TrEMBL record:
<dbReference type="GO" id="GO:0030170">
    <property type="term" value="F:pyridoxal phosphate binding"/>
</dbReference>
<feature type="domain" description="Aminotransferase class I/classII large">
    <location>
        <begin position="64"/>
        <end position="439"/>
    </location>
</feature>
<dbReference type="InterPro" id="IPR050859">
    <property type="entry name" value="Class-I_PLP-dep_aminotransf"/>
</dbReference>
<dbReference type="Pfam" id="PF00155">
    <property type="entry name" value="Aminotran_1_2"/>
</dbReference>
<dbReference type="GO" id="GO:0047536">
    <property type="term" value="F:2-aminoadipate transaminase activity"/>
</dbReference>
<protein>
    <submittedName>
        <fullName>2-aminoadipate transaminase</fullName>
        <ecNumber>2.6.1.39</ecNumber>
    </submittedName>
</protein>
<dbReference type="InterPro" id="IPR015421">
    <property type="entry name" value="PyrdxlP-dep_Trfase_major"/>
</dbReference>
<keyword id="KW-0663">Pyridoxal phosphate</keyword>
<keyword id="KW-0032">Aminotransferase</keyword>
<keyword id="KW-0808">Transferase</keyword>
<feature type="region of interest" description="Disordered">
    <location>
        <begin position="1"/>
        <end position="34"/>
    </location>
</feature>
<dbReference type="GO" id="GO:1901605">
    <property type="term" value="P:alpha-amino acid metabolic process"/>
</dbReference>
<dbReference type="InterPro" id="IPR004839">
    <property type="entry name" value="Aminotransferase_I/II_large"/>
</dbReference>
<dbReference type="InterPro" id="IPR015422">
    <property type="entry name" value="PyrdxlP-dep_Trfase_small"/>
</dbReference>
<dbReference type="InterPro" id="IPR015424">
    <property type="entry name" value="PyrdxlP-dep_Trfase"/>
</dbReference>
Length: 457
C-alpha cells in the first residue's frame, strides 16, 4: 500500500536519478511535536467540560448547572411545519439547500429589523438602513467571537460585568485580551463604577487599550439581573463620552440573549435603540433560547465601520451561517409560530421560576441573610451567594457535599474576569431552565442538605 511517506519520497526524488540512491527526506524516528499557535496555547479548556463529565458519570444527579433549554419545550411541530413549507416549493427548497451569502439571507434580515421596529415601538421603516448592517451568525456566540477577533489584540481591554457570562471570557483569553470587572448591583451594571473604571485606566495610561464594554442588559447570565431602565441611556452616553476622551472608538456590546424571556412585566427597549447614530452599540441577539439552540441562528447589528471587517473575518470562518436554518427561522417568524412558541415558553419558564424560588425560600430561609439569591424577572438563572469563606469551587468541601447529595451547580468563580484582584469564590449559578418541576424541588432539597452539611443555620 502506498503511504504518505512513500509519496513524500517520490516527490523528493530528482527526475532522471537512479532510484537506488536514498531520498534526502527520511521518515522521522519519532513523531515530531506540534507547534501550536499562541492563540491556541492561550485558550484553556471550557470550565464546564468538567461539569458535563460529572453529570454523565452520575446519572442520578439533578443538574441545576446546565445552561441548556427545557428539553420538552423544544418546538418539534413549529420546526417540522417550517421545514414542510420550505420544502413544498422546489425553487425555494433548493435555494435553502444551497450556500447563502456571508451576511445572511436578505428576507430574514429584513424581517429581523421589522420585528425590532415593532418591539421598540417606532414607525415602520425607521430602522430600514440597519438591514445592511445586520449580519446573521451561527448563534450569538459567533458574533461575540467575531467582535473579539475584530477588536482585540494582546493586551487590549474589555470592561465586563462582575459577574459575567463565563463563556465570553474564552474568546477574550484566546485573543490575549484583558477582561476587567466592573461591579453590578440589583439594578445591573453600576454606571458610577464603570465611570470609575474608565478613570482608573486613564490614570494608568491604559485608556487607549479599552476596546469595548460587554453587558447583558436582560436577565443576565449568570445573575438573572436586568439593567435598570434609568441606567440605560446614561450607559450608552458614558461609553460614548469615554470614547471621545480616548479619541478612538469604544463600543458597547449588548448581548441580548435572554431578551423576550420576561415573566410578567414588559421589557424596556434595547440599548441599541438608544444609539441612533449607530456608532457605539453592537447588538447581539439569538434564537437559541426562544426557539432552538440546535437551529443555532443569531444576528448582530454592527456600527458602520465594523461591518466590513467582521464580514471579512466571517468569510474566513464559514462564508455564511447555515442557509437552511436561516430560512427555517424565517418561516417560523412569518407564520406566527415563533411568537406563539415564545408565549408558551414565558408561561413554562415563569412557572418553573416561581416554583424554584418558592422551593429555595422554603428550604433555605433558616439561613437568613447568610445565604442570598436573586429573584429574576426572566431568563433562566438564579445567582446564589453563600457566606464569605465558603468555597464553592470544584475543589471545595461544599462542591463535594453537593456531589454526595446528588446535585450540581456552576461554581460562581468562573463568571468573574480575573482582574482586578482575587476572584470571589462563594457564589453559585443555578438554573431552572433544564430541570423538570419535580427535579427543581428535589434539587433544592439536595442543595439544602449539602448546605446543612457545610454550614449550620
Ligand atoms: C449570555 C449569553 N450570550 C450568548 C450565548 C450564546 O448562545 P448562542 O450562541 O446559542 O446564540 C449564551 C448561551 O448560553 C448566553 O447565555
Amino acid at each position: 500500500m502506498q503511504t504518505e511517506l512513500d509519496t513524500l519520497s517520490e516527490v523528493a526524488r530528482v527526475p532522471g536519478e537512479s532510484t537506488d540512491r536514498r531520498s534526502p527526506i527520511q521518515p522521522p524516528r519519532s513523531t515530531p511535536p506540534i507547534h501550536l499557535s499562541q492563540a491556541a496555547i492561550r485558550t484553556s479548556a471550557p470550565s464546564i467540560t468538567n461539569l458535563m463529565r460529572m453529570a454523565l458519570e452520575n446519572p442520578g444527579i439533578v443538574s441545576l448547572a446546565a445552561g441548556f433549554v427545557d428539553q420538552q419545550s423544544l418546538p418539534l411541530e413549529v420546526a417540522s411545519r417550517a421545514v414542510g413549507t420550505l420544502m413544498a416549493d422546489p425553487v425555494e427548497g433548493r435555494r435553502a439547500l444551497q450556500y447563502g451569502t456571508t451576511i445572511g439571507h436578505p428576507g430574514l434580515r429584513t424581517r429581523l429589523i421589522e420585528r425590532l421596529e415593532r418591539a421598540e415601538g417606532v414607525s415602520a421603516g425607521s430602522y430600514r438602513e440597519a438591514i445592511e448592517r445586520t449580519v446573521v451568525t451561527t448563534g450569538s456566540a459567533q458574533l461575540i467571537y467575531l467582535v473579539c477577533e475584530a477588536l482585540l489584540d494582546p493586551g487590549d481591554i474589555v470592561l465586563v460585568e462582575s459577574p459575567t457570562y463565563f463563556v465570553f471570557l474564552g474568546p477574550v483569553e484566546t485573543r490575549g485580551g484583558r477582561a476587567v470587572r466592573v461591579p453590578i448591583d440589583e439594578g445591573g451594571l453600576r454606571i458610577d463604577a464603570l465611570d470609575q473604571a474608565f478613570a482608573k485606566l486613564q490614570a494608568e495610561g491604559q485608556l487607549d487599550r479599552v476596546k469595548f464594554v460587554y453587558t447583558i442588559p436582560e436577565h443576565a447570565n449568570p445573575t438573572g439581573i436586568s439593567l435598570a431602565t434609568d441606567r440605560r441611556k446614561p450607559l450608552v452616553e458614558l461609553v460614548r463620552r469615554w470614547s471621545g476622551v480616548a479619541g478612538r472608538r469604544i463600543f458597547l456590546l449588548e448581548d441580548a440573549a435572554y431578551q423576550g424571556l420576561s415573566y410578567g412585566r414588559r421589557e424596556p427597549g434595547s440599548l441599541w435603540a438608544l444609539d441612533p447614530e449607530g456608532e457605539t452599540v453592537i447588538l447581539a441577539r439569538t434564537f437559541s433560547k426562544t426557539l432552538s439552540p440546535g437551529v443555532k441562528i443569531g444576528y448582530g447589528i454592527l456600527p458602520k465601520g465594523l461591518l466590513e471587517p467582521i464580514l471579512r473575518l466571517k468569510g474566513n470562518h464559514d462564508f455564511g451561517s447555515a442557509n437552511f436554518n436561516q430560512q427555517l427561522l424565517e418561516h417560523a417568524l412569518a407564520s406566527g409560530d415563533y411568537d406563539r412558541h415564545v408565549e408558551h415558553l414565558r408561561d413554562l419558564y415563569g412557572r418553573k421560576r416561581d416554583l424554584f424560588l418558592e422551593a429555595l425560600g422554603e428550604a433555605l430561609s433558616g439561613y437568613g441573610d447568610r445565604v442570598r439569591w436573586t429573584r429574576p424577572r426572566g431568563g433562566l438563572f438564579v445567582w446564589m451567594t453563600l457566606p464569605e469563606g465558603v468555597d464553592s469551587g470544584f475543589e471545595g468541601a461544599f462542591f463535594a457535599n453537593c456531589l454526595k447529595h446528588g446535585v450540581l451547580y456552576v461554581p460562581g468563580e468562573y463568571a468573574f474576569a480575573p482582574e482586578p484582584g482575587p476572584v470571589p469564590r462563594n457564589h453559585l449559578r443555578l438554573t431552572f431552565g433544564v430541570p423538570s418541576e419535580a427535579e427543581l424541588v428535589e434539587g433544592t432539597r439536595r442543595l439544602a442538605a449539602a448546605l446543612e452539611s457545610s454550614l449550620s443555620p
